[in-house]
Design a protein that fits this description.
23% helix; 9 strands; four-stranded antiparallel β-sheet; single chain; Cyclic Phosphodiesterase, Chain: A
Length: 171
């Protein structure tokens, strides 16, 4: 049976993904082929009441915003590599709270990041990590829209579709 997974993501567009996509293409080509680089905003289990989520998104008055990136780090017993997002100002958490209002009273704290090497389909080594640490990644990334994406399992993995986009605009 084919199952569809949906999530809300902040897709990294244009030249902002320079360095990020190069590392993904070179060191994790399978994940690179699945989906472009992104920051997951809400996971599938959080948006199962999709009509309510879409209603909240239709009321969103959010200006485009920037996030700061930290230095790369390994995770999942060192097999994966990610770039953590610095959300000290709470932009992402506040956005999540707005989107999930009326659905989840206290949304879990999201450890926002950009995955460079997913441990499910790659394995980082010490030497490889040292190479990745030398790549110049952007210090900040600007987002101007939220994308509702879907993946249909049971088919080719690279069946990610953008179902709907919500452009960020000032109040």
């Amino acid at each position: 049976m084919n199952r569809k997974r949906k999530q809300l993501s902040l897709l990294i567009e244009g030249n902002q993904s320079q360095g990020i996509e190069e590392v993904r293409r070179k060191h994790n080509p399978l994940q690179y082929g699945l989906i472009q680089s992104h920051v997951t905003l809400c996971r599938e289990d959080e948006i199962d009441k999709l009509d309510m989520v879409l209603g909240n998104l239709s009321k969103l008055k959010q200006e485009p915003f920037e996030i700061k990136l930290e230095t790369v780090k390994r995770f999942s017993e060192g097999k994966g590599v990610l770039i953590p997002v610095n959300d000290q100002d709470g932009k992402l958490q506040n956005l999540r709270k707005f989107i999930l209002k009326g659905i989840i009273s206290f949304p879990r704290e999201l450890q926002a990041h950009i995955t460079l090497m997913h441990p499910r389909n790659s394995a980082c080594t010490g030497q490889l990590f040292e190479e990745i640490k030398k790549v110049e990644f952007p210090a900040t990334i600007k987002f101007s829209k939220i994308s509702l994406i879907e993946q249909e399992t049971g088919k080719k993995w690279n069946v990610w579709n953008v179902l709907k986009e919500f452009k960020l605009k000032p109040e």
